[in-house]
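Page 47, continued from p. 46.
Same chain as before, 390 aa.
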Amino acid sequence: MKKVFLSAGDASGDLHAADFAAVFARRNPGARLVGLGGDAMRSAGVELVAHQRDLAVGGLLELAGGLRGVVRSWFAVTTAIERERPDLVVLVDSSGFNLPLARRIKRRQAVPILYYVAPQVWAWRSGRIRKLAARVDRAALIFPFEPAVYAGTGLSAEFVGHPLIDAIPAVAGDAARAGARDRCGLADAAGPVVTLLPGSRRNEIAAHLTVQLETARTLQARVPEVQFLLAVAPSLTDDVGRGLRETCERWARDGLHLRLWTEGARDAISAADVVLAKPGTVTMECALLGRPLVVMGRANPLTAWIVRRAIRVPSLTMPNLIADEDLVPEFLQDEAVPERLAEALAGLLAGPARDRQLAGLAKVRQALGPPGAVERACGIAEEMLASARA
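Result:
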């Protein structure tokens, strides 16, 4: 019986790993899948040894507040790998956890390692390129420009396409928008809907939520009929969830047209006319669903200072990098203020700015390759398993 260990430490990685697990299980009946992940992976049949909610914190200085959960997850994962002795380890994103994990596995066990959805080493901390190449056996890459990053490292790195092309097979049109609004409780919304996506980690919620809500209040003063949908990851702990509900209720009592949504971002994006999002995978979901967006991001000032000096790309917004232009308005740190964000959102509700961005997002989708990314990644995994047995 084939035994595969999957490690995904955040909400977007959980979804990618779940898709991988479902396809791999279909192609390999009887395979046993174990790992670190979230509810999506569990639903796909993965036996979880640790839940990624304990890793739901990002940043450099911000990590200190969640260190206990990280240590607990590290112990659970490393113990499980030594106990289970898997035939293959598949790492999904989450480089802060998965790159050290790959080093430990290489030092202690002769287990082949596939990195699927590799970390964005081309964007910052480029020293990780050599580390990744030395610690894993193969990489299944999701952006067309990534294979060139690993040229000359000796790593077998293959572009398989973006998995969201399979998960989001077509742009969400009017019918999809109406269905999503019905599921999100906004079927009777007469005005435009703006979805707020502050992030899936505790520190992201802390940094972005108030700014996004103040932006919503500012926009509502300009567009009184607007409705807001605050979408947060279901993986957040109960205490964070209670705090979000209380916050939403308080702002709603103060007159903001706000509803909380905790069932995943995709319906919330499909329901929207425009989205206010933090940088990350969710910007690609917006692009593939054909939803105009504005990106904002804030972090601890020292973390931001360090990142600014390490960053090697002109934007933190993936659609901008793929399009090679300033397609999506991006506001970071002191630029992420409610007045500027509300103005950018208002400009995307209708008119030429909306039309230009939608046309650019359609080109982004075309650049991500054909469907079948997960199937191709599973094919690589099967080749590795066959080589290990030979």
